[in-house]
């Protein structure tokens, strides 16, 4: 510490003392109580001499700290540490001195508890239900990304249309007509960063707090979180081999405003919604003036025959809201997804989306539209369909010995995950406890309790070696475990 005619000023280690360093050191000393409230500081002349800097520098620093309320200056008397600082730093009497921030809200707490939405960064068996990036045409993407930036110029650095770039909206409408049997105008397409964001925005626009919503049980947890956040009254509707039990939905929540479904490949069970149920669902929605939210998160990846017709194209009454994502079919950090909705709700949705995070960056959207327009997207899909299909076949083949032990899985040849279910939940749980594998339990996707359980096997990003090793390990563990 340096001696002066006022209090001791803290030393500051620096070969050449700059104003910012000295200002920061003095401010911290005041906040930490090293310079206590009411204490008198040395004169600027004295302090400047002590620190070996100009008096002008000390004048500026003292003035700034005074303006910010850390110091008080009285003409003829000197400069003092402000007495109000004590209220900032000192704990109230009887309180612990440990720093503790206020508690989150009940709502925040329960949303944060839906932690299974957090995906692991490193793919290993079987936590990898995302795109295999080793097969992504990276060079092409880089080239198109650079071209997109060039074409947009500095305009691409400004605000973008919250509905999405017109080129991309047109490219998505064209793709949907060609590959998903969906006829829509580009004006009905709205671009989001993720299917998750589309769910949040739709839920906020369409639901009043307390409105009923059917949610598949088990379900995609991100959807449950979005609808809960909007204050909806969640009506869990069981899923069987034909998908959501429309009859039970009608019985449990006949006046629901929305039914949320994943018809092509139910998440997480993997079943497809049967035609009978599709018709029943659309009829119920029409009778009840309700919406249907169709989350077609991996509808592109069906490995036998044609992709299933989207629910959207079966409905003639404009009540199906279609959500698709490119984060599964391209790569997970792309962050581009879309919804197809009646034109009259595009603007309100875009406004709510703006309130959330503005818009999707234009360069990324432009690159995506070029990728689609030049045919790279459809060739990539064709290629990935073959690759994921082969991985799924390897998995199903490798699991065959477990059928004899009572394990079952959906025969719907689709997607990047497979749910292996077992009637005895304790058995499935004991297998999931194996530290050699990263297995999610069906139970964590359920709303209502059930006796049985299952293991979610997410294989999209696994390479051939780790897929085979994972299967061998899983079969060995399942054969060995005695609950
Ligand atoms: C049913 C379902 N919907 C949506 C998503 C997420 O898509 P996005 O990453 O675009 O939010 C997933 C991801 O696995 C999903 O399983």
Tell me what you see in this structure.
The chain is an alpha/beta fold. It folds into 3 domains: 19-89, Arc Repressor Mutant, subunit A (Orthogonal Bundle); 138-374, Type I PLP-dependent aspartate aminotransferase-like (Major domain) (Aspartate Aminotransferase, domain 2); 379-480, Aspartate Aminotransferase, domain 1 (Alpha-Beta Complex), CATH 3.90.1150. The chain contains 17 helices and 15 strands. It has helices at 19-31, 44-51, 55-67, 85-89, 106-112, 138-152, 166-179, 195-206, 221-229, 246-252, 275-288, 326-329, 346-357, 362-373, 376-403, 425-432, 464-480, and strands at 40-41, 71-74, 78-81, 189-192, 212-217, 233-240, 243-244, 258-261, 291-295, 320-325, 337-340, 408-409, 417-422, 440-441, 453-458. An 8-stranded mixed β-sheet has the order 4-11-10-9-8-5-6-7, sandwiched between helices. A 4-stranded antiparallel β-sheet has the order 12-13-15-14, with helices on one face. Strand 6 (233-240) and strand 7 form a beta hairpin. Helix 2 packs across helix 3, helix 7 (166-179) runs parallel beside helix 14 (362-373) and helix 15 runs parallel beside helix 17. The radius of gyration is 30 Å and the shape is elongated. The mean pLDDT is 93. Bound molecules: pyridoxal-5'-phosphate (PLP).
What's this entry about, in short?
41% of the residues lie in helices and 13% in strands. It is an alpha/beta fold and 483 residues long. α6 crosses α14.
Low-confidence runs: none
Cofactors and ligands: pyridoxal-5'-phosphate
Helical residues, percent:
40-55%
Q: The biggest beta sheet, please? A: 8 strands, mixed
For the secondary structure, the number of strands is 15
The average pLDDT score comes to 93
Number of helices: 17
Major sheet: arrangement of strands: 4-11-10-9-8-5-6-7
Radius of gyration: 30 Å
Percent of residues in β-strands: 5-15%
Architecture per CATH nomenclature, i.e. the level-2 architecture of the largest domain: 3-Layer(aba) Sandwich
Q: Please indicate the count of domains.
A: 3
Q: Give the termini distance in whole angstroms.
A: 67 Å
CATH superfamily of the largest domain: Type I PLP-dependent aspartate aminotransferase-like (Major domain)
Q: Structural class of the helices, strands and pairings?
A: alpha/beta
CATH class of the largest domain: Alpha Beta
């Amino acid at each position: 510490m340096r001696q002066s005619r006022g209090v001791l000023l803290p030393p500051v280690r620096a070969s050449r003392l700059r104003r910012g360093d000295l200002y920061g050191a003095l401010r911290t000393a005041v906040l930490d109580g090293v310079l206590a409230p009411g204490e008198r500081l040395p004169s600027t002349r004295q302090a400047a001499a002590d620190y070996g800097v100009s008096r002008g520098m000390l004048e500026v620093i003292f003035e700034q700290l005074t303006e910010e309320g850390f110091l008080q200056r009285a003409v003829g008397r000197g400069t003092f540490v402000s007495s109000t600082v004590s209220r900032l730093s000192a704990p109230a009497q009887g309180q612990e001195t440990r720093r503790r921030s206020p508690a989150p809200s009940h709502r925040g707490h329960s949303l944060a508890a839906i932690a299974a939405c957090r995906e692991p960064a490193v793919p290993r068996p079987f936590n990898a239900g995302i795109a295999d990036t080793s097969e992504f045409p990276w060079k092409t993407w880089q080239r198109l990304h650079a071209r997109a930036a060039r074409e947009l110029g500095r305009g691409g650095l400004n605000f973008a249309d919250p509905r999405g770039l017109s080129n991309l909206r047109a490219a998505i409408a064209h793709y949907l007509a060609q590959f998903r049997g969906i006829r829509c105008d580009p004006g009905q397409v709205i671009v989001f960063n993720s299917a998750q964001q589309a769910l949040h925005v739709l839920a906020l626009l369409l639901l009043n707090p307390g409105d009923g919503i059917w949610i598949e049980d088990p379900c995609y947890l991100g959807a449950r979180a979005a609808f809960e956040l909007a204050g909806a009254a969640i009506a869990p509707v069981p899923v069987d081999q034909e998908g959501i039990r429309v009859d039970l939905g009608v019985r449990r929540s006949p006046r629901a405003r929305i039914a949320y479904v994943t018809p092509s490949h139910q998440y997480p069970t993997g079943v497809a919604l049967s035609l009978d149920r599709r018709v029943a669902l659309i009829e119920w929605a029409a009778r009840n003036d309700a919406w249907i939210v169709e989350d077609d998160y991996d509808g592109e990846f069906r490995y036998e025959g044609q992709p299933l017709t989207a629910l959207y194209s079966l409905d003639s009454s404009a009540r199906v809201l279609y959500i698709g994502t490119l984060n599964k079919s391209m790569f997970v950090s792309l962050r581009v997804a879309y919804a197809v909705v009646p034109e009259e709700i595009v603007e309100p949705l875009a406004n709510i989306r703006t309130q959330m995070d503005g818009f999707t960056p234009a360069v990324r959207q432009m690159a995506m539209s070029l990728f689609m327009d030049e045919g790279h997207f459809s060739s990539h899909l064709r290629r990935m369909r073959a690759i994921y299909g082969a991985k799924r076949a390897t998995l199903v083949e490798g699991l065959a010995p477990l059928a004899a032990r009572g394990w079952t899985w959906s025969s719907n040849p689709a997607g990047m995950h497979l749910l292996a279910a077992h009637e005895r939940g304790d058995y499935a749980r004991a297998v999931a406890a194996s530290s050699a594998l990263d297995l999610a339990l069906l139970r964590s996707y359920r709303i209502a309790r059930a006796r049985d359980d299952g293991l979610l096997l997410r294989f999209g990003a696994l390479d051939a070696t780790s897929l085979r090793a994972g299967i061998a390990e899983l079969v060995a563990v399942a054969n060995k475990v005695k609950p």
